[in-house]
# Entry
Amino acid sequence: MSTSNVKIAAKGISKSFTTENGTIQVLDNVSLEVKTNEFLVILGPGQCGKTILLNCLAGILPPDSGEVILNGKKVTEPGPDRGVVFQQYALFPWKTVRDNVAFGLAIRHMPVKERYEIAQKYIDLVGLTGFEKSYPHQLSGGMKQRVSIARSYANNPEVLLMDEPFSALDAQTRYSMEKELLSIWEQEKRTVVFITNNVEEAIYLGDRIVLMTKLPGTIKMEFPLTSPKPRNYTDASFLEMRLAISEETELAL
Amino acid sequence: MANAAAANLKEKIGAVFSFVIFLALWQVASMAVGSEALPSPADVVAKAQEMYTSQIGGKSMWMHIYYSLRRVVGAYLLAAVTGIPLGIAMGWNVKFRKIANPIFELLRPIPPIAWIPIAILWLGIGEGPKIFICYVGAFVIFVMNTYTGMRYTDHLLIDAARTFGATRRQQLFNVAIPASLPSIFAGVQNAMSMAWMCVLAAELVGAREGVGFIIIQGMDLNNSPMIIVGMITIGLIGLFLAVSLRYLEKLLCPWRRELQ
Amino acid sequence: MTNQQLSENYHRGKEVKVSVTDLTKKYDDLLVLNDISFNIYKGEFLCIVGPTGCGKTTFLNCLSRFIPTTRGDILVDGQPADPTHHDMAFVFQEVSTIPWLSVEDNIRFGLKVKRRPPDEVERRTEQMLELVGLKKFRSYFPRQLSASMEQRVVIARNFALNPDILLMDEPYGQLDLKLRYYLEDELIRIWQEIGCTVLFITHNIEEAVYLAQRVLVLGQKPATIKEEIIVDLPRPRNFADPAFVKIRDHVTDAIRWW
Amino acid sequence: MSTAHASALEAPATSRVKGYWKEYNSSVFSLLVFLLIWELVCRLGFISRFQLVPPSEVIVVMIEKFWTAPPDGATLFTHIAASMTLALVGFCAAVVVGVPLGLLMGWYKPVMVLVRPLFDAVRPIPPIAWIPLAILWLGIGIEAKAFIIWLAAFVPCVINSYIGIKLTNPVLIRVARIYGASNWETFIKIGVPSAVPMIFTGLKLSLNAAWTTLVAAELLAASEGLGYMIQMGRRLARPDIIIVGMLTIGFTGALMSYVLTKIESRIASSRRL
# Structure
């Protein structure tokens, strides 16, 4: 892998937290590189520190040691160049769909007309046309997550960080959201770091899968995925890959 | 939807039914007791008519209500204007919190009503102590609710704003304060009922006008219908204040309209 | 063997445990279940699959008398189904451990409600703790357990009753793959050991084919039974096995929801 | 893992544990400054002795009040005992009636339909407004005060028990019903235990309301108790007595809430909720 087209990289990141029961090491010397427009999936069991890793990449949490490099520069703070889609949506309940999507643009003091135009484009892209004036509580889980994706996209980030975005959705919505995310990504390619604990979702979406261990989280293995998207859940190659990956994961009882 | 309407109707019939039972029991009880102390519903209605058309202590009933309301609303607005910013400051700024919180925590457990004697000592027996008591009662609630709202703002929302590059100031005004509004509004309601209770207490202890004065006058005159009319008036005004605030909340927080 | 023959062989000589005839459910004007008829045999493992929101859960709710049916009968052993008479057990989609009871008290709960004699309650509880491997955790409270342990407590609580029918409503929907495999194998093991009648509802075709002796496919609202598929694969089954994939694809075609 | 975050609004905090002193020094400092300003305001004669006395004198009076009865007729302990007895009697009576009523209202629809309208009708009248009527009916003795305190504590008990049982997880109700439990059995075994946390919240609110109302009642009609003590302080123009009384009211109230919180956490930890 040549370093020239590396978009975002983590170098030797460690992180631990102090709790009542002592110190817990959450990440142990994690390094990874994501190429421009690559769809990287980080797969790991519940509580393996993958969310913390994502927060480090986003700059929300400072790592104890190691650094995050974006475009060759060290990351110290969250910034509009990295959009985050949170598991619990993190929509602003007091804002309409349109104002939520336009939030990042408003923060940058873009004129109202312009920002609503951009917002509209992404609302249309995620298929929420007609819901511009709804409030988040009026939407279903899948719709909320679409708003969240649109909000990140509208801000035109270089890197999209997605933290188990579909884990709170029911299975069928989840399938259709995966499909939709893929088609959005095909239309507007971005560098994506996608976190999940679902093997099928990982194989369905990823260009490359990074498998993490249980606490303290380290990178156990990488699986490049070359077959063309969209992939079929019952293809022999899909099932083989699923078997190969799940053999490597630990059973979390 | 037909079921919902039917259920609604059933509830209304139930309400009417329970009121009828209540009035009947009251009537029976007053006949059984047969003393001045427990007037019948009819006596109370007659008394209400009399009270609202004549003067008590040199003022009409409406004037008494006006006096009470003036005290409450004045103190309440003052408490909102001072309490909400203080709560925001305490919630947002660690330094400020550390300085203000201990004094606040020291004074908070003292019920506002316990301030009445010292308020009278400080401010005499005019409007001053009554407004002061209401102010204390409402102020504490405003501060506490605003502060709690700020402290319990979902961290995720702040994080989300940070990922869009929001400055600290933008995080405060665009995220933390709006996110605290539900809690602040809960405070707005509670502060009002607290202020209303405080004005009553202050008027009971020493006043020549106001609804509290009416019921204490009733007690002094040994006139229980008068007290009951006063109490009902108090309840109705309290209800009116609460309903208007709820309406205001719906107006100002449209995103919460369907949450309740 | 054609599907037809398979089906005929399967039904021959089986004892009916639950019979559902002309089951219909309407909410106001919304028809959710439309004229559903089928039998569940004694000791059978039956799966029902269908798209989300096709009325699977409504069906279970009718069966367990949570909600009244609009029309049709559900008979258990020839009697109208009624939880106070029949030993039914239910594993819900949501985790349904009782938070203020310890693991063992959770397992005792059903037995106690059924007023079983104390010595039987104790004996069954011990047996179940052993069976689901939670002996060491008997005095733990649900919130100290992981999701999979909680689900095992629920399963133990239900199997403790030695139920006539065990109803399961997407019990593993939210679990990750490996854990799901593990719990599915556990379920098969316990079912084979105890041998009760299981009705398992899921949207996951792979899971249905992995578990069931027979799969019923429900169509979109209003739900009707579109197809019946006999799964005659030996256990333990392998999801990459071509025969398995063939049945799975067949079921997928039958549903065709995406 | 997001619980590992520092509290919401603090600027990114260093997770290192700082010394106890460092954590609290500014708080102690601010209290000291507060007391110092108070002391100076009084000592420099900005305010009359009949309105405010310096904190140093308040402390002296407070210590003296432990064994001296004058000028308000009883020692501090007597006042505390009188007030606490009254508050606790009213509170306990309210709990005994209010909690079951709330639970039944939440579980049985007919109870709700019959009781709720009356309850809603009476609720807007602050308990304090009942004082004159209570005195007229029951005299100025302990009964009138106990009645008013009961009334004040009753309302939060009912409301919270009601809400608590309404919030019972429906899945748990179904668990009991599928095993053939009767409605009453489900109420006792599922509804009531799951309402317990909300009931405790209600108890705290009740205690608070009881204590506030007690002060009001004692201001109006009493011959002992903390409310009476501060009222006497006013009549005698003795701000020191009033302030000692106010602080004692605050402290005793906080202490009772604290005890209740301890009981709650004891119960909660035994159930590991």
Notes: The first strand of chain B starts at residue 55 and ends at 56.
